[in-house]
Amino acid sequence: MKRNTWQREAVREALDRTEGFISAQALHSDLHRSGSSIGLATVYRALGDLASTGEADSLQSPEGEAIYRACSTTGHHHHLICRNCGLTVEIAADEVESWAQRIAAEHGFTEAAHVVDVFGLCEACAKA
Ligand SMILES: [Zn+2]
Ligand SMILES: [Zn+2]
Ligand SMILES: [Zn+2]
């Protein structure tokens, strides 16, 4: 039985309402604007929790900040992210999977995992 379940739920709902990736701080201000008194440390913890159970994606922005998103795909996958508007496309990357397996094996690594996210400009942002 976990404490802070309602807080985790509040964070999850706020994340569901958010388009694209968001930082813990930005999510925290959103929650405050909507009248929640939840603390920043709790938001960080809840996001970490959701990320570890696979309910949220977490990755590093190009600025090195941890950002989160409610994930619509379960299981291992990759993202294509617009660095301007945050549009995110969930992608499978079979070539990456076989490359990562091969390169790890060549160096004698087992239990290899990887995080591959591609940042760029989406079509709409590139046109604007
Ligand atoms: Zn995802
Ligand atoms: Zn964009
Ligand atoms: Zn992969």
TrEMBL record:
Q: What would be one Gene Ontology cellular-component term for the protein?
A: cytosol
Q: A Gene Ontology biological process annotation?
A: negative regulation of DNA-templated transcription
> SUPFAM superfamilies in the record, alphabetically?
Winged helix' DNA-binding domain (SSF46785)
Kindly list the places in or outside the cell where this protein is found, as annotated in its UniProt entry.
Cytoplasm
Entry binding sites for Fe cation: H76, E97, H114
Question: What molecular functions are annotated in GO for this chain?
Answer: DNA-binding transcription factor activity; transcription cis-regulatory region binding; zinc ion binding
Which CDD domains does UniProt cross-reference here? Answer: Fur_like (cd07153)
In this record, what's one Pfam family? Answer: FUR
Which Gene3D superfamilies does this UniProt record tie to the protein? Answer: 3.30.1490.190, Winged helix-like DNA-binding domain superfamily/Winged helix DNA-binding domain
Name under which the protein is recorded: Transcriptional repressor
Which species expresses this protein natively? Agromyces archimandritae
